[in-house]
Write a structure and sequence with these properties.
34% of the residues lie in helices and 28% in strands. By secondary structure, it is of the alpha+beta class. 26% of the residues are buried. The chain is globular. The protein has 6 helices and 8 strands; from the N terminus they run αβββαββααββαβα. It has a domain of 125 residues: 2-Layer Sandwich (Alpha-Beta Plaits), CATH 3.30.70. Helix 1 packs across helix 2 and helix 2 packs antiparallel against helix 4. The strands form 2 sheets. It has a 5-stranded antiparallel beta sheet. Strands 7-2-8 form a 3-stranded antiparallel beta sheet.
Length: 188
């Protein structure tokens, strides 16, 4: 069962709001993401600095995937979805998480009763025990709604669109008629 959960979390490299799954079906035509408010972006990354630390790095990745799987089912945390990115070298992995607000992200991260605290302590322990063989980093960005620009053409909802939904766009980037009603659909 643990291996199955790990695979499910890994498959959700593009994950929408809690309780949903991202669609693989392309949305024909031009679209934009449709956030209804400001968002917070949380980037957390891992780098395997020494090949002999690969095993420790994989343990950190497994813990991170478990935490993402738990977050996916947490409807009250402010978590909205994530995307896992690899590269630019095979030793690097980044998780881009979308949150309703920076405040909700920080409240989640500092909540002593949440599993995240134990997982973070485990991350730190594993990284320290690797003696520089595995590195971790993170960044938080507050993004105002009016500072967001996006474009999607004939692709499934990806990135921010997997989290907020799509807004049809006409020629020249104009919203299609009845854009609000069309953009609020549940992901299958």
């Amino acid at each position: 069962m643990r291996a199955r959960r790990r695979v499910d979390a890994f498959r959700r490299t593009v994950s929408g709001p809690p309780g949903t799954r991202a669609s693989d079906a392309p949305a024909p035509g031009r679209h934009a993401a449709d956030p209804d408010s400001d968002i917070a972006l949380f980037l957390i990354g891992l780098r395997i600095n020494r090949l002999r630390s690969l095993r420790g790095g994989l343990r950190v990745v497994t813990s991170m995937l478990r935490l993402l799987d738990d977050l996916h089912d947490d409807h009250d945390s402010g978590y909205r979805g994530h995307r896992i990115l690899f590269g630019p070298t095979p030793r690097e992995m980044t998780v881009l998480q979308y949150w309703a607000s920076r405040e909700q992200l920080l409240a989640f991260a500092t909540d002593p009763g949440h599993r995240h605290r134990a997982a973070w302590r485990e991350f730190e322990r594993m990284v320290r025990s690797s003696a520089g063989g595995v590195g971790l980093w993170h960044e938080i960005y507050r993004v105002p709604r009016d500072g967001i620009s996006s474009f999607y053409l004939d692709v499934p909802p990806l990135g921010l669109a997997a989290v907020t939904g799509l807004t049809p766009r006409g020629p020249g980037g104009r919203r299609e008629p009845n854009w609000r009603a069309a953009s609020h659909h549940a992901l299958p």
